[in-house]
Write a structure and sequence with these properties.
The protein is α+β, with helices and mostly antiparallel strands. The chain has a single domain (about 15-180), classed as Glutaredoxin (3-Layer(aba) Sandwich), CATH 3.40.30.10. Helices cover about 45% and strands about 10% of the residues. The chain has seven helices and five strands. The chain has helices at about 35-50, 75-85, 90-100, 105-115, 120-125, 130-145, 165-180, and strands at about 20, 25-30, 55-65, 150-155, 160. It has a five-stranded mixed sheet with strand order 1-3-2-4-5. The protein is globular. The mean pLDDT is about 90.
Length: about 190
């Protein structure tokens, strides 16, 4: 009996998922996780920044699960990567923050439906850690960048100093915009 070759489906990596204008001069990257209250607060700050700097900022969320403190943060990260495969990363991202106290596997499956994901294998993918490597790749990259606490932000590749408040992020985005006007061809990713 001949074996049928399994079709390889490319995985959309978190480094390829952004919100905002893809040609924006500012790339804002956050390393964080879904159970962390400070990351949830930062998510609200980012929403306001994207509104106030519309067309000037594109945002990317990268996973940095602190599993010793938040045991469900890894699976929540995997759920968001699974959602990105269906083009629903940002819908799932916001739902996970809104429900950060209830991130069990069964809840994650329910949130996937709320986000509009129609993947019948969603729960199996979570149980089998199908997207665990993508979350671990983000974590390892964050460790390589010297991240020890979250949320950690980078603006055009430079780590933000200080707290991720609206005032601090806004001020640093404005500074980066001035720099970008002086040298428009250079844009970095974190």
């Amino acid at each position: 009996m001949a074996m049928k070759a399994k079709e390889l489906v490319p995985v959309i990596e978190t480094r390829d998922v952004f919100v905002g204008d893809k040609n924006a001069p500012i790339t804002l990257v956050e390393f964080g996780e879904y159970e962390n209250d400070d990351c949830a607060k930062a998510n609200e700050v980012v929403k306001k920044l994207l509104e106030d700097f519309d067309g000037k900022v594109r945002f990317q969320f990268r996973h940095f699960p602190l599993t010793r403190v938040h045991q469900r943060s890894m699976k929540a990260g995997e759920a968001s990567v699974a959602a990105s495969q269906a083009g629903k990363f940002w819908e799932m991202h916001n739902i996970l923050f809104d429900n950060r106290r209830q991130l069990g596997t069964t809840s994650l499956k329910l949130y996937s439906k709320e986000a509009g994901i129609k993947n019948k294998n969603f729960l199996d993918e979570l149980l089998n850690s199908t997207y665990g490597w993508q979350v671990m790749n983000d974590l390892n990259e964050g460790i390589d960048k010297g991240i020890t606490d979250i949320p950690a932000f980078f603006i055009n590749g430079e780590k933000l100093a200080g707290k991720p408040t609206y005032e601090n992020l806004s001020k640093n985005i404005q500074l980066a915009l001035r720099k970008a006007k002086r040298k428009p061809a250079s844009r970095q990713r974190a």
